[in-house]
Design a protein that fits this description.
single chain, 330 residues, alpha+beta, di-copper center containing domain from catechol oxidase, two-stranded antiparallel sheet, 6 strands
Length: 330
C-alpha cells in the first residue's frame, strides 16, 4: 500500500515519528565496519543512519565521465547530470523503508520541508521558521545546542556526527556535534515564485528534463532544480548553502534536514512528472550518453557491488510506494 508524504510543518505526527526514527537509526549498529570502506582508524561498527552518509559520499566522489573520458563539469554518480533526481529518489525510498522498519510502522511516510514557503519571509526572519525550533530540528550553531539533535558528549545515545568528508575529500571518523550556519553561504532560501518559474521555463524541446551532452551545464529541469544550469533557477544547491555547516560537504546527510529537503525536491519533480509524463533522457542509445546516467543504468550503491540495482526507468512511477499530499505547481 502506498504511503502519503506530508508537510513536516503541518503534520506533527509525521514530525515526531521522523525525529524518533532518526534517533533509532543513529543508535542501531550495523554488521558493517569502517574498514569495509577503507575509512582510516580502528574498524568501528557503522550505525545504520551513517550508512546513508557513506552512500551519498561514495556517489559524490564517483565520477561518471563521457565515453571519451572527458568530464568538464564534474558529473558524478548522483549529481550534476540526469541521474540527480532518480538517484535521490532511490536514496530517499531506502531511508523511508528503514524508518518504517525501526518505527514498526509500514504506513509511515517520509515528510518534506517546503523550504519555498519559508523562503517567502525576509532573509533575516527565515531562521525563525518553526522547523528550527527545539520541537522540530533544533537551531543553528556549532554545535547545534537545542532540540533532539543537540550535541551532548556525555550522552552515548545522543545525536552525534561519526563520519564526515575530510579536507582530502575522503571520509574520516569523528565524534562531533551537528552544526549549521544559517545564511552564511546563501543569503536566502528559494521562494514560491522561483519554484513556479521552474515549471514555466520549459517548452516542448526541454520536457525530457535533461539534454545532450547531459552534463551540469545543460538547461533542462534536472540541472535547474539542482542548481547547476547557468542563468537558471538555483533551488536545491541554494538550500544546502543556506543551511550551511554539515549540509555543505559530500557527507551532507549527517544533518537530518537533508532528507526533508530532498523529499521536497522529489515532490517538485513529481509535480513535473504529473505534468509531462514519465519522461527521461538519455536513453541507452543516445550518442555520447554518460554511463551511469542512462535510463536503464543501475543506480550506484556501495552496498550492492556487482549486483543490478534500481534504474532511472524504475523511478518514473512510484505510485505503488508513495504519494504526496500536495504537489506543485499550484
Amino acid at each position: 500500500m502506498a504511503v502519503t508524504r506530508t508537510n513536516v510543518l503541518l503534520d506533527l505526527a509525521a514530525r515526531d515519528a521522523f525525529l524518533r526514527g532518526v534517533m533509532l537509526l543513529k543508535n542501531e549498529t550495523s554488521a558493517v565496519t569502517t574498514a569495509a570502506f577503507g575509512i582510516p582508524g580502528p574498524p568501528t561498527p557503522i550505525r545504520a543512519y551513517d550508512l546513508f552518509v557513506i552512500w551519498h559520499h561514495t556517489a559524490m566522489t564517483t565520477m561518471t565521465p563521457n565515453p571519451d573520458g572527458t568530464n568538464p563539469n564534474g558529473r558524478n554518480a548522483a549529481h550534476r547530470g540526469p541521474i540527480f533526481l532518480p538517484w535521490h529518489r532511490v536514496f530517499l525510498l531506502f531511508f523511508e523503508q528503514n524508518l518504517q522498519r525501526v518505527l514498526g510502522d509500514p504506513n509511515f511516510g517520509l515528510p518534506y520541508w517546503d523550504w519555498s514557503a519559508d523562503g517567502t519571509a525576509p532573509p533575516a526572519l527565515q531562521p525563525n521558521s518553526p522547523i528550527w525550533s527545539p520541537d522540530w530540528l533544533g537551531g543553528g550553531g556549532n554545535p547545534v545546542s537545542t532540540g533532539r539533535f543537540a550535541f551532548n558528549p556525555a550522552d552515548p545515545a545522543g545525536f552525534r556526527v561519526r563520519l564526515e568528508s575530510g579536507p582530502s575529500g575522503k571520509l574520516r571518523q569523528v565524534n562531533l556535534g551537528l552544526w549549521r550556519a544559517f545564511g552564511a553561504s546563501a543569503a536566502s532560501l528559494p521562494n514560491v515564485a522561483e519554484v513556479g518559474l521552474l515549471f514555466d521555463l520549459f517548452d516542448s524541446s526541454l520536457d525530457a528534463a535533461s539534454a545532450f551532452p547531459w552534463d551540469a551545464a545543460c538547461t533542462g529541469l534536472s540541472n535547474r532544480l539542482e542548481g547547476t544550469a547557468p542563468g537558471g533557477t538555483n533551488l536545491h544547491n541554494q538550500v544546502h548553502r543556506w543551511v550551511g555547516g554539515a549540509m555543505l560537504p559530500q557527507s551532507s546527510p549527517n544533518d537530518p534536514v537533508f532528507f526533508l529537503h530532498h523529499c521536497n525536491v522529489d515532490r517538485i519533480w513529481q509535480g513535473w512528472l504529473n505534468r509531462h509524463g514519465p519522461v527521461y533522457q538519455p536513453d541507452m542509445a543516445a550518442p555520447g550518453g554518460p554511463v551511469g546516467h542512462r535510463i536503464h543504468d543501475p543506480i550506484l550503491s556501495p552496498f550492492l557491488p556487482g549486483l543490478p540495482g534500481p534504474t532511472p526507468a524504475m523511478t518514473l512511477d512510484v505510485s505503488a510506494a508513495y504519494t504526496y499530499d500536495v504537489v506543485p505547481p499550484p
